[in-house]
Amino acid sequence: MEKKGTAVVAVGGNALIKDKAHQTVQDQYNCAKDTMSHIVDMIEMGWDVVVTHGNGPQVGFILRRSELAKDVLHEVPLDFCGADTQGAIGYMFQMALHNEFKKRGIRKDAATVVTQTIVDKNDPAFEHPTKPIGSFMDEPEAKTRQDRDGWTVVEDAGRGWRRVVPSPLPVDIVEANAMRALIDAGMTVVGVGGGGIPVIQLEDGTLTGVEAVIDKDFGSSLLAKEIDADLFVISTAVEKVAINFNKPDQKWLDQMTVAEAKQYIAEGHFAPGSMLPKVQAIIKFLENGGKKALITDPEHIGDALKGETGTWIVP
Predict the structure, then answer these.
(1) Strand pairing class (47-53; 5-11)
(2) Which tens digits make up the pLDDT trace of 124-178?
(3) Strand, coil or helix: what is 144?
(4) Is the pTM above the cut of 0.90?
(5) Helices (H), the chain
(6) How confident is the model at residue 24 (pLDDT cuts 50, 70, 90)?
(7) In the prediction, which pLDDT does 2 show?
(8) pLDDT value at residue 52
(9) Residues whose CB falls within 8 Å of the CB of residue 8, separated by 6 or more in sequence, listed in order
């Protein structure tokens, strides 16, 4: 088959958990299987693929189990929760890819790289934690954890108290070269789960984990830059990006330039915590030398790569 180049494909939270009624490990694997079949379509078209993914709900599950068991077992630090989810989700993706390759007669292997992402210890996010994690608490428990463990806690819209952690910007992907080597060896790679495990670099060059959460799309964008990817795909819940979303004058976009994307951001078309970080991550990739990017849902990746749907973003 004709080689098309290297693509980083960031799959969203809906790739594993469709709704609250389908959250078990088997439910998640069933979703992974569906999504990986679309990734294999892409591989059959000639793309070398690195799959990245979110891990928010899975980290939440680990933290909840940890909190419930804290009287009998040590609690799990947040960076280790990230590592645990990278391994578990990587296992799901690897198995789904292996089985799909087998079914289609493709001689290929998949490998997961537990990925560390360096953040700047002076990132302003560390002074202003904003990302809610873990379970809801009552006020006395929240204040106890604040005093005893140094947590930052906030009251969350009348629903109870929650811990919040920083969400710093990624600076460097520690295992980028390892992933590049695996791609060059013909492997399909799973990496940068949850944006990567946040670590900071000390004066002597050594690394240490920090209690933070990295945006998955920004981590994926940085990886795409560092491995010189030809294409950055963000797979999400919608087939195309829209302006004036859910309004009478809603308009679906086939393509936009970086300049147009910035204008739409300035006009407030993309919601924070939804489409906004995806578009911002793509702008970063394209401004750092990337050639093209695509936003679509998993089932339309193949059609979008043929130019039939999806929203393309170009410099």
Answers:
(1) parallel
(2) 999 999 888 877 889 999 999 999 988 999 998 788 999 999 999 999 999 999 9
(3) helix
(4) yes
(5) 25-44, 56-68, 78-104, 139-149, 176-184, 216-226, 258-266, 275-287, 301-305
(6) very high
(7) 83
(8) 98
(9) 49, 50, 52, 220, 223, 224, 227, 229, 231, 232, 233
| Percent above pLDDT 70 for the chain | 99
Domain ranges of the chain: 5-128+166-314
State residue 285's pLDDT score.
Answer: 98
Work out the burial of residue 32: count CB atoms within 10 Å of its CB; fewer than 13 is exposed, 13-18 middle, 19 or more buried.
buried
Tokens of 23: 């959250």
DSSP 74: P
Pairing, β 311-314 against β 255-257? parallel
- Which residue do the tokens 């750092």 mark? 288
Neighbours of 74 (CB within 10 A): 8
Tens of pLDDT, residue by residue over 238-282, are 999 999 998 999 999 999 999 999 999 999 999 988 899 999 999
| DSSP string for 99-142 | HHHHHHT----EEE---EEEE-TT-GGGGS--EEEEEEE-HHHH
Q: Is the pLDDT of residue 114 over 90?
A: yes
Name the nearest CA neighbour of 56 among 9, 26, 15: 15
Alpha-carbon gap, residue 300 to 218, rounded angstroms = 22
Active-site annotation, residues: 13-14, 131, 216, 278
Residue (of 228, 166, 216) closest to 191 by Cα position: 216
Residue with tokens 């308009």: 251
What is the fold, at CATH topology level, of the domain defined by 5-128+166-314? Answer: Carbamate kinase (3.40.1160)
CB of 42 closer than 8 Å to CB of 7: yes
Q: How far apart are CA 16 and CA 2, in angstroms?
A: 31
